[in-house]
What does this fold into?
Amino acid sequence: MSGRGRAVAAVLLAATVTLGVVGAPGAVAAPGPGTGQQARAWLPQPTGPYPVGTTSLQLTDDRRDDPWKPGQHRKLMISLWYPATRAATGDDRAPYMVPAAAEHFGSDGSVGQSDYRFEPGRTDWAGIRTHARADAPALPGGKRPVVLYSAGFGDPRTWGTGLVEDLASRGYVVVTVDHTYEASEVAFPDGDLATSVFPALLAQPGLDMSALLRRMLQSRVDDTRSVLDRLAGLRHDERLPAGLAASLDLDRIGMVGHSGGGSAALQTMHDDPRLKAGVNLDGQLHFSNPDGSGVQLPLPTAAEDGLTRPFLLMGTQDPESGSYHRQPGWDALWRHSTGWHADVTLTGSRHGSYTDAQSLLPQLARQGAISGTDLTGAVGDVPPDRAVLATRAYVASFFDRWLRGHDDHLLDGPSPRFPEMVYER
It folds into this structure.
């Protein structure tokens, strides 16, 4: 499973062209250490031609018990991001996190805080704004390809907003999924805040970590397939903004995920033909033995059987990542797959480099809300703007090619535009 998943477990058991990633905070004097003010941060601007809208929905699967809370139906929160009729400005921009989720995410001991090691209570997470207008009417223009996004182990669905907004600004409808009771926290419209069950599970004596991670992967695949089942019904859902339901092209669906979400993207592709293409952002496809040694067999069936449809592997220079040659699950997937596939590795990166950690945490470090050591451990030493730009370019190029039939040839081989990306086919 993901290296980040094991990093979270260890912690809990012990207790761009300049996209504004670096430049934005300089526009206003930033609070420094000891000022008593909370650190502030900005998301990078989307690069596509369209304004972005967003809306959030609760989905309840009456046919399925919750895998982490037996005896209750599975509840999920999703958000849709899409081309909108007009741009959001100022206070019209939707918040990055709703207040209850933001407060918990930034608190001492939350999975998010334990994972990324920012100072608890030092960041104004509720004050971060997206570039999207909440519940804006969808931009007319016919059906648009749909991309699902699944975040990493313990991460909320918001932790990939920079990439998601960029895809929406390029003409995609993106559906982000919160994996309830696994994510650090999930806020529901009725005021319920579902926090992660993993701190308690990981503290159990004699825990079989590989079995837990297999269970997590299956629950994510089931969540994703449940969302796919519901997308067609959204055409009749009056909660959606005007024009959004009609813009969903359910014959062109892809998926991108980070860490455990990336593993789930490829496993769902294996299990469900509705997914036409997938991107795995640094999510492993193998498990360690219960004692932490070696590789436990069998591998996930996506790796054992391979895939017949296109996929892209995007690795980092995290010690447990890198080229597909270095990862047993990726190597098996590569050998057994007949669909188009490629592998890229971002030089100087770490596991968090494909998430909003890459744009937000450097800003927090300049304001004393995360140490330099913890920053480097999360996102490495790759220049933040370059990491954001490369991630967006490769993910968009892949989906443009396989969901739209538009090929910019970035994925044909090594590119002089991105010398920091090591390419393999």
